[in-house]
């Protein structure tokens, strides 16, 4: 009965079978010669990736995560498992994006930017899903509203999002600075810009005094920590120059 009742169950049921099929193709591609799964994956990589990412965003916004009456526990529930599986499938599908730019009348630069755009779209989808997980967790354990019920105007939700997003930026910039991943570092800084905009336009206008203070102090301290431990990593050209000089 739950397969035809729109709540969280159809969102999960509607994605399990395609995920199984796609994962099977990815895993058994070297054994199934007649189907030519390599070509099949190239043809399906773009539309299937887009559909899966759209599903991730839509399902994250519309469901509470309480499947079949179970309590919602982050990561340890069928909905989040499906989100993770869908993200992994899209990640591997992006490796099968067509590389022959001449067949599409496009330049190599255009194809490269398109691949980076798809990777960015996957990252944004994952960020939205992660934010939805925070909203569902607060709804389950603290009684806060979901997106459709006014989460943007709830003090606890906004303070939690501000702190968690800033911590995510700290992790991204810290790892990027350590391993010289400049693009990832820029993603972390972009997330900080989003946090600052949220503080100015949402937290400052909606949050109560205590929640506002916690948001600003917490985010400010983490930003100071980022400036101390996560400086801008060197570019690939700078690294190459240093390696040549050391030789």
From TrEMBL:
InterPro entries: DUF2339_TM
Membrane-spanning intervals of the chain: 12-28, 40-58, 70-97, 118-136, 156-177, 184-204, 210-230
Taxonomy, superkingdom: Bacteria
Keywords of this entry: Membrane, Transmembrane, Transmembrane helix
Protein name: DUF2339 domain-containing protein
Residue ranges the record marks as coiled coil: none
Lineage: Bacteria, Pseudomonadati, Pseudomonadota, Alphaproteobacteria, Hyphomicrobiales
């Amino acid at each position: 009965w739950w397969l035809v009742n729109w709540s969280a169950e159809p969102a999960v049921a509607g994605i399990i079978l395609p995920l199984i099929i796609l994962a099977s193709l990815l895993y058994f591609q070297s054994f199934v010669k007649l189907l030519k799964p390599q070509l099949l994956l190239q043809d399906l990589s773009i539309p299937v990736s887009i559909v899966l990412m759209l599903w991730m965003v839509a399902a994250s916004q519309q469901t509470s995560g309480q499947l079949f009456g179970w309590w919602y526990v982050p990561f340890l529930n069928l909905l989040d498992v499906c989100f993770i599986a869908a993200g992994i499938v899209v990640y591997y599908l992006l490796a099968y994006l067509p590389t022959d730019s001449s067949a599409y009348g496009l330049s190599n630069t255009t194809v490269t930017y398109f691949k980076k755009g798809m990777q960015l779209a996957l990252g944004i989808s994952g960020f939205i899903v992660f934010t939805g997980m925070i909203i569902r967790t607060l709804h389950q354990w603290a009684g806060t509203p979901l997106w459709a019920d006014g989460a943007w105007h709830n003090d606890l939700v906004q303070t939690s999002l501000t702190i968690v997003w800033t911590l995510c930026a700290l992790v991204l910039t810290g790892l990027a600075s350590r391993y010289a991943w400049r693009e990832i570092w820029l993603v972390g800084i972009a997330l900080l810009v989003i946090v600052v905009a949220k503080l100015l336009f949402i937290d400052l206008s909606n949050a109560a005094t205590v929640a506002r203070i916690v948001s600003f102090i917490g985010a400010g301290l983490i930003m100071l920590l980022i400036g101390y431990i996560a400086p801008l990593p060197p570019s690939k050209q700078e690294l190459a120059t240093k390696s040549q000089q050391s030789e």
